[in-house]
Structures are given as structure tokens and as C-alpha cells.
Amino acid sequence: MKDKMPVLTRRDFLRGTIGVTLGTSVFGIQWPKGEARAAGSSLVTVVRDKNAMDSAKNIDITVLEKMLTETLTRVTGQENTKDAWLSLVKPNDVIGLVPTDHLNPTHDEVVHVVKNSLMDAGIPEERIRDAQGPRNAKKCDALIAIPGLKAHWLTGIGTVLKNYIMYSGSPSSYHKSNSSKLGEIWNLPFVKGKTKLVLVDSLYPLCDKGPQPDPRYQWNYNGLIAGTDPVAVETVCLKIITEKRKAIRGEPWPLSPPPICIEAADRVYGLGTSRMEQIQIQHYGWEDKLLL
Amino acid sequence: MNADKLDLPKTVGVWNRPDSPRLINAKNIFKYMNGAGELYLGYRFHHLEVFDYTSPDQGNILVELYFMENSDDAFGLLSLDWGGEPVSFDGAPAATSKKSFTSPTRALYGGGLLRMWSDDMYARVMAERETPASKEAVITIGKAIAANTQHSPEPVLVKKLPLEIGTVWNLRMDRLSFFRSHLVLNSIYYLSHENILGIDLSAEAVIAPYEYIPGSGNPKRSQFLLVKYENPERARQALNRFHDAYLPDHKKEISADTDADSPSPFRLEDGWLAYKLLGKYIAIVFECPDPESARTILQNNESNLLKKGGGS
After folding, report:
1. CA A17: distance to chain centroid?
2. Which end of chain B has fewer CB atoms surrounding its CB within 10 Å, N or C?
3. pLDDT digits (tens, 9 = 90+) for B40-70
4. Mutation site for A-interface testing, chosen from B114, B182, B187, B220 by largest number of A Cβ within 10 Å
């Protein structure tokens, strides 16, 4: 076996050698050991309101609008929504909204609130489009990723990084060991650098793997999670899902398979940080069962 | 079998279904459910029939009928999650027995979703909004699905696992899963993104934890995996591949002789692992607290397998 490629196994996760094994087997390169984003930290906001969605899953649009305003001003440090948006996008940008359309789809209300907020900031409606789908990012200058918070049975977590899987043109090829490569999609020429905000619809997350939604594993979290660093946002999402699973079973219940795409997005693709110590989490509003 | 042979009610409460289902096969299942299609193709999937029961103002009820090659595959899909409230449609005991599989759970309900195994069919009936009325409708539809179908036995492989080992190790039947795909295995107990055990549709496998609750109350749990291959040669090749991938730092000890001495457990990062080739079966135990536990769990399973006619 000495000449054979090492295979990534459970033991690599136990030993902390996933980087070495993935580096030589999947990526064909040595996994960088350096601190990719040693300087500074990534801000992730978690804004919650217990009235955002009721037990019958009805969404209060007014509450949701307030949550978005809180999110935008906190993420950007701007005084108001208009300034916040204009610090992220240019008025003449073609802006693509990228919701998730399956498993635990992004609520239409969240997409509508984002679109209306952009229009209120002076972005013409014709410059705002749905950019989910194989080639839709090509026509956009800026992207707003709006995935639904969820686990995934083939990739562990299926929220932020996986939200662009259709841009690859071959989504099923990222469902096995290559799920570690989901980050490379964010570096495709027609995608790279376009994502101005990641806004996770965490009103009603799904904490189990699926592959189809099971309401026993969904709950009213009533939140919006946001940031400009997709890996940091995904890392916070993973923490919430992990904590919820532990609360359900009363013992650790790790995601299986493990979501290797997150660490790879940090260390191989340089998309952001997956290290909690480099993430500044700011939460506002409803504190109950924050799971952070 | 298909839905024509079922007598699904046209109307349940305020919900109405169309005359015909949407038909999904192996070619278009990915279009219907994206990556989730791989779960069903990981079993021996035949086709899927989908009915949408609609209501004016109480949400819809989605009925998915997965027709599989045989009842083992349908059982396997239900076995991926034994959580929920057991439901009986015929007055038989609904709860999973702690001691045997003689009265297995065939339907589980929770949060508006009914999952059930009925002969060679696995069904999901899900209310968009859970209310007392929608729950009643979901159960009524489930009863119609189960009506006039055989109560097939659970897979033979499942019954080969001893429920108790000595006085200390108990099989966690509520965590027992039957499968034929390494993707499914990884969703239960991650081993490797690669198919290092060579599990495919020609194989069948069962995994379940054995749990030991000592006096201190801190349970110890070991995972037991049993895979049955088409023939002994496939099993031998698979175990070789597993050892090379999972235990490259340990000396290989694979013998085709089922009467060979007890296996030598390997000390790994999460406990002790032992395996044994038993004819066309491979038995592996993971995460044992000590080598003796690993040997005991493996040997008891081997004895049970031979007693029940396996191993050849």
C-alpha cells in the first residue's frame, strides 16, 4: 500500500490529519498549514425575533423587515439600510439573489424582503434577478447568497458553500469525497469575488441530514445569520446545527458524513475562516436557545 | 405492485387527490428530488408514485410511495430512523420490541410525517401543516396504504445479530439500520468517503451499536457492522481493501477460515477494532473499550451467524 494514495477515513478526523490525507488524495496538493486569515476576524451576525414566525409557520413581514435592517446595519456598520446596501453593491450593479430551492428552501418572504430593501435603497427592480441556476451568475455583477439553514445527507451541511453547487454545471460530482471541493465553485471566474453578502434564512432550520425534510428535525429558530465571509457564516451555521442535534438526543450526535467542505474552503480555497477563534459572533434580539 | 392496487381514498377530510400520480423512475428521480435520489438508488429502487392531496386552506398532504425490488429494501429505508411515534394499522402491537424483531414497527409518525414499510413499499405521507385534522388524514391514508398488503418479515441479515451478549452488551435496536450503499453507511456511521468496503446493490449490510451500561451509568457503545457479499471471494477482496484503507499502519490478519483463532483487535484512536471474514460475510466491530470486548462481540456474532446458517 505504500505507493497507493491515502484514503480519507474516520481516523483522519480523529487524528486531525484530514488536511494531509485530503491534500494528497483529493486535491493533489499539500493542505496549507498556515493561518490563512491570521489577521483580523470575520463578523457574523445572528439576529432573532421570536415573533418572526409563529408555530403555524406564518411569517410576520414587518418583523422580518426589522430583522433585515438590523442585520444590514450591523454587518456593514452603516447607519441605515440604504447606506448599508450601497456599501456592499453599486447602484448600477446587476444583483443576483441566490436562494435555495430545495430540501429546506429559502422562504419566499425572505427573498421578497431583501429585494424590496434593495429597491428602497435605489436599485432598480430590473437590475435585481434570481441568480439560482447553472449559468445565472454570469450575468450578475454582485451576488447575495440567501440559503436556508440545513444539514445534508451527502455533504454533512448544505447551507452556504453548497448554495452555489448549480454553478458548477455538474452538481452530483460534488456529492462524495469531492464535497470537500465545494469551495472551488466560489472561485470560478464568473463567481469569484461577486458575493457581497451571505444571508442565511434560519427561520426554520433543518438539523438532520435528510435527504428529505423531516419536520421532527425542524424548529423555529426565527433568525437571520449574516456576514461577508461565507466560511465564517457556514461555521456558525454548523455550530447551531451541531448544538441542536445534541439537544435533541441529549448526547453528541455529530453530522455524518462530516462536513469537510468548510475547512477546505478556508485552508485550500481561501474563502474565509472556519476557525471559531477568528469569528466574531454578534447576536441581537431573542436569546432563548441561541445554540451558540 | 403499484398504486392501482392500492385503494387510496380520493378524499380525506378536506383533502383531495388527483386521479393519477406523478410517476418517478430511476432516470428522473434526480430531477424530482436532487441529491436525495441517491438514497433511493442506494437501495433497489423500482419507481415512485407521488400524490398531492390538496385542501383549500389547510395546506397539502404529500404522499410518496416508493416501490422497491423487495421488502428488505423498503425495510431498509424505514430503518434509517426509528424515531417517532409507532403507529399500528391493524391492532397489532406497534412498539418495537426490546427483545426481538417478531413484532416490528412498520409505521412511525412525528411532526406531521408518517413513514412506513409495507411489503415492498416504503411510504412517506407528510402534512404541510400539522393539526389534529391533518394527523387524522395522514393516518387514514397510511391505513389505506397498508391495507391488503403482506406483513413481510424483516431482512434475514437483521435477525443474525444477537440481541444480548453476555449480561452486559445490549443491541440498540432503535439504532439498527439495513443498507446496500456506502453513502447510506456514511450517513449513519462515517467510515470513508470512498467505498472502502465495496458495498453495492449486490451486497446487504446491517449496522447497530452494542451498548454496555456499567454501574457508573456512563454507557460504552461499540458499533457492529455485518456485510454479506455475493460470494466469499468478494468478501475477501472487500476486507483486504478495508484493511488497506482503514488500517494501513497495522499488520493484516485475514483468514478465510471461520474456525481460525479469535481475531487480534487493533488499537485505534477511538478504541479497539476487530474484524473477521466469515465466508461471504464480513463482521467488524468498532470503538470497543478493550480488546476482550471486541473479541466477545465478534465471537458472539460469529456463533449466531453459524447457528443460523450463515458463513458459507
Report:
1. 25
2. C
3. 999 999 999 999 999 999 999 999 999 999 9
4. B187
